[in-house]
Amino acid sequence: MAYGISHKQLDNGSYELRLAAYKSHPLRLSYCDKSKKYVVYTSINNREAILDRIFVRIDGGSQLNPDIAYFELSGRDAATLARVAERIKP
To answer: What residues form DSSP beta bridges with 36?
Structure first.
């Protein structure tokens, strides 16, 4: 597992963010016209969503090498604003 985040500016002024520990799940920092603020978009249950929270469940291991049981993404559907959540096992 590695720590950190990489970013890349996109043509529309948004940024693509990738967590070093989970590069296959991209995040996008972008301005939201509905809420009039910057938010992070990502895929939750195969739907575009506004990310509200990431919860990481650790079961043992060490500080530098934790045993991650799962992590949970929760947020709101970008189109309907309905609550969405997804639990992912690494």
So the answer is: none
Q: Please check whether residue 90 is in contact with residue 68, taking contact to mean a CB–CB distance below 8 angstroms.
A: yes
Between the alpha carbon of residue 80 and those of residues 26, 48, 63, 66, the distances in Å are 21, 10, 39, 36
Domains: count for the chain: 1
**Amino acid identity, position 40:** V
- The C-alpha atoms of residue 53 and residue 22 are separated, in whole angstroms, by 15
Quote the tokens at residue 71. Answer: 């992590």
What does pTM read for this prediction? 0.83
- Could you read off the pLDDT of 69-82 as tens digits, one per residue? 998 999 999 999 99
Q: Write out the residue range of the structural domain in which residue 77 sits.
A: 5-88
- Give residue for tokens 């809420």: 35
